[in-house]
Amino acid sequence: MQRRQHQQRQWSQIILWTVLIVAFIAGSVGIIVHEALRPSKTAAEQTVSIARQKGISSASDFLTYNRQHTYYSVSGKNAKNQAVYVVVAKQGGKTQVLKRSAGTSKTAILRQVWQKDNPKKVLNIGLGIRKHQPVWEVTYLNQKGNLCYDLLRFKDGTMVQSIQNL
């Protein structure tokens, strides 16, 4: 009888320690993920704030562009209810407001990349500035799983640069 009670206590302690260890690991992973995502969340909040200062309402669709310089952008509507993109340079905070009707939409650019390259997976699309011109950057994995970049003009969607099979 005492032996059985002793074994039950041992199993109870093992279960308790296992639950405590799993809870500790889950909590630690949660903290690590939260800290890792903080810079992106902060950048998004700052970009939305800048867009609102420029008179943009309902800012959404946070995008990141990373080439020689980093740009953050959001889409929204201006005071005339026109759809716009607000592009903000990470360094210096220089801001450009682009009417969506003056260029190629994010959806059209993605459709174009899918039709041309049939990627296995699109990793990122961002709107940024290259040589004083707004451009779309699409990062994707091709069918072989190799990393590829396409840079397309915002104005008309024409290819500026394509880097394949990195």
The count of DSSP E runs of length 2 or more, i.e. the number of strands, is 8
Helices, by number, come to 2
Reading off the top of the CATH hierarchy, the class is best stated as Alpha Beta
CATH names the topology as Nuclear Transport Factor 2, Chain: A
Q: Uncertain regions: pLDDT < 50 for 5+ in a row?
A: 32-38
Q: What is the general shape?
A: elongated
Largest sheet: 4 strands, antiparallel
Distance between the termini: 68 Å
| Mean of all residue-level pLDDT scores | 83
* Helix/strand order, N-terminal first: HEEEEHEEEE
Domain unit count: 1
| Strand percent estimate | 35-45%
Radius of gyration, in Å, reads: 24 Å
Oligomeric state of the chains present here: single chain
Name the structural class: alpha+beta
Helical percent range?
25-40%
Which architecture would the CATH scheme give at its second level? Roll
Order of strands in the sheet with most strands: 1-2-3-4
Structure overview:
The protein is of the alpha+beta class and 166 residues long. Helix content is 39%, strand content 37%. The strands form 2 sheets. Strands 1-2-3-4 form a 4-stranded antiparallel beta sheet, covered by helices on one side. Strands 5-6-7-8 form a 4-stranded antiparallel beta sheet, with helices on one face. Strand 1 (57-66) and strand 2 (70-77) form a beta hairpin. It is elongated and about 85 Å long. Residues 32-38 have low confidence and may be disordered.
